[in-house]
Specification:
Pfam families: WDR55. The protein is mainly beta and 400 residues long. The protein has 2 helices and 28 strands. The protein has helices spanning 19-26, 372-384; strands at residues 47-48, 53-58, 64-69, 74-78, 87-92, 99-104, 110-115, 120-124, 130-134, 142-147, 152-157, 161-166, 171-177, 183-188, 194-199, 204-208, 213-217, 225-231, 236-241, 245-250, 259-262, 270-273, 278-282, 287-292, 297-304, 310-315, 321-326, 330-335. Strand 24 (287-292) and strand 25 (297-304) form a beta hairpin.
């Protein structure tokens, strides 16, 4: 058997200066937490304002959003998916009354706003300075705005007056009053030739910008026409109404509707295309619905401002986010990046008591939605009263 191995004695500094020993005795692990990594969300956080927001607009090339409120103030924010990443860049209080519509120029250098005080403002986006003010642009309160190109833009007011402006001249070269009530929304075709307007009198107006003339009014619909969108690669026009119905027109067949679709919402107060087939609608019930056009289907819900009427919707430059503003004094962001890829079956599938499908994590029942349980119960109760969420008066064919 081998002899046991003896341990060599440890040599220590006679003066007690053994550094290695001291480190072993005194050194302890550092449990101090380092700086936390910023949390990245699916969407930017909500932006809360002191007054209800009427209008929102996304910048065409940067992560910037503008908002105008009922006090006439305009705010410009940079937005980010990083937690607490939204930042106010500047604000403007030049309008005396409610700011009702806003739009960035195509180069992103200027922000146009219109107001109940009958004025048009053009602001420098980088500094927030007022570049141009047209104080008495209309005789009635302004309600809608549409930028046509780098030189032309259109405005509509509460009395039904449409004006088309040329920035090079600084004046309106086209003034026409063919509506009996307020102009709620405007759209223009890809060729920048035909301007479409919707009105509270229940009609859609058609104006030829190239020839500077009024073309026609559509037949009257029940309820206000609140919004307009050009769909199906320019072949169809969709109009939302205060009665919760989407009216469809064939291009060059604007006199009478080709189809109508009851969304079963209390109203359609605003509408924005996601692609050639799908639009998102905002309603007085606070729900944002995704709707497929021809075949006509309510696909599901994108999000909600619980119990608060939605004023406007806007789509980000990359198509990833939808922003909404409502009477709850908040601007909310929704992820719509996957909605455009949804394909709807032509054949109707009739389903009773069907709850709206949640199309984002923040929609009904999503973990990020504080009101998820409440809104899910409300949605289920409402769906039980409806036999078919996707009722349509047509055969759902995509024909001209």
């Amino acid at each position: 058997m081998a002899a046991p191995m003896e341990t060599a004695p440890i040599c220590r500094d006679p003066d007690g200066n053994d550094e290695e020993s001291q480190q072993e005795e005194t050194e302890e692990p550092d449990d101090t937490p380092g700086p936390a990594e910023p949390q990245v969300r699916d969407t930017p956080m909500d932006i809360t304002f002191e007054a209800a927001v009427n209008t929102i607009a996304f910048h065409p090339s940067q992560d910037i959003l503008a908002a105008g409120d009922i006090d006439g103030d305009v705010f410009v924010y940079s937005y980010s998916c990083v937690e607490n990443g939204n930042k106010e860049l500047w604000s403007s209080g030049h309008h005396l009354k409610s700011c009702r519509d806003a739009a960035f120029s195509s180069d992103g250098q200027q922000l146009f706003t219109v107001s109940k005080d009958k004025s048009i403002h053009i602001l420098n986006v980088e500094e927030g300075k007022l570049v141009k003010r047209i104080t008495k642009a209309h005789d009635s309160a302004l309600n809608s705005l549409l930028l046509i190109d780098e030189n032309l833009f259109a405005t509509g007011d509460d009395s039904g007056m449409l004006k088309v402006w040329d920035l090079r001249r600084g004046t309106a070269f086209m003034e026409m009053k063919n509506h009996e009530e307020y102009i709620s929304s405007m759209a223009i075709d890809q060729n920048k030739k035909m301007l479409l307007t919707t009105s509270g009198d229940g009609t859609m107006g058609v104006f030829n910008i190239k020839r500077r003339r009024f073309e026609l009014l559509s037949e009257y619909q029940s309820g206000d026409l609140t919004s307009v969108a050009i769909m199906k690669r320019g072949k169809k026009v969709a109009c939302g109404s205060s009665e919760g119905t989407i009216y469809l027109f064939n291009w060059n067949g604007f006199g009478a509707t080709s189809d109508r679709f009851a969304v079963k919402a209390e109203s359609i107060d605003c509408m924005i295309p996601i692609n050639d087939n799908i639009v998102c609608t905002g309603s007085v019930d606070g729900i944002i619905r995704a709707v497929n056009i021809l075949p006509n289907r309510v696909i599901g819900t994108v999000g909600q401002h619980p119990g608060e009427p939605i004023e406007q919707l806007a789509k980000s430059r990359d198509g990833r986010f939808l922003a909404s503003c409502a009477h709850d004094q908040k601007v909310k962001f929704w992820d719509v990046s996957n909605i455009g890829s949804i394909i709807v079956d032509v054949y109707r599938k009739r389903k009773k008591n069907r709850q709206l499908q949640a199309l984002s994590k923040k929609a009904f029942g999503g973990a990020d939605d504080f009101f998820a349980d409440l809104k899910e119960d409300q949605a289920e109760a409402k769906e039980k009263e409806e036999e078919d969420e996707e009722e349509s008066d047509s055969d759902d064919s995509d024909s001209d």
